[in-house]
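Tokens as discussed.
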């Protein structure tokens, strides 16, 4: 049986890192590395030429950094998903990458399973944030006060809040349904309802809202 593999572009200026990532991704039955780039400009060029499903993008690269490359790539090829892969456990980088249009943020020290999960989640239209870093963001918002408008968490039902948390943690509709004992169709209904109620347009905006409301603690 033929499998339509996820086509992945790797962008990292360190050859050893790229080789490790390539071995990891090509070792998955549903993934394939279709190209490599050593800097941000090359990543942008390769992405436009190869049209991969997803780019794993290092933040610190010569010529054009990952943040700028992500922002430009989202404008040029909005259908391509981007995962930021970095050594930086820094809230400011996370904010920049989300604003630039990244769907995922993974720390290089993460276990193999975490990156693989992030790739599948983001390629399927979801979002993924390294849990430890997400917790730091939540703490920052709590300590400073979000100072942002919008609907409050109190306007959501318990089940809506549960769905929102799981969406923000990067779980697929099927995984959310299994955790909550509801159908995939019901999960989709809750997501549509949440986005309408909270005036959100994407899963990334749902993640941002969940962060502001402190919903990503103790997953």
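Sequence:
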């Amino acid at each position: 049986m033929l499998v339509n593999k996820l086509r992945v572009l790797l962008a990292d200026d360190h050859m050893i890192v790229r080789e490790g990532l390539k071995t990891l991704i090509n070792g998955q039955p549903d993934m394939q590395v279709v190209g490599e780039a050593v800097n941000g400009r090359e990543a942008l060029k390769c992405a436009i030429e190869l049209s991969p499903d997803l780019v794993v993008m290092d933040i610190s690269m010569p010529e054009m950094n990952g943040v700028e490359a992500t922002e430009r790539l989202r404008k040029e090829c909005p259908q391509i998903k981007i995962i930021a892969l970095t050594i930086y456990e820094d809230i400011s980088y996370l904010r920049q990458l989300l604003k630039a249009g990244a769907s995922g943020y993974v720390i290089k020290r993460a276990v193999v399973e975490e990156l693989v999960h992030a790739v599948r989640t983001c390629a399927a239209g979801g979002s993924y944030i390294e849990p430890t870093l997400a917790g730091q963001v939540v703490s920052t918002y709590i300590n400073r006060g979000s100072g942002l408008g919008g609907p409050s968490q109190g306007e959501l039902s318990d089940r809506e809040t549960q769905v929102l948390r799981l969406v923000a943690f990067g779980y697929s509709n099927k995984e959310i349904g299994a955790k909550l004992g509801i159908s995939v169709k019901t999960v989709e209904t809750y997501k549509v309802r949440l986005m309408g109620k909270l005036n959100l347009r994407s899963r990334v905006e749902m993640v941002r809202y969940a962060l502001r409301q402190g919903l990503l603690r103790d997953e």
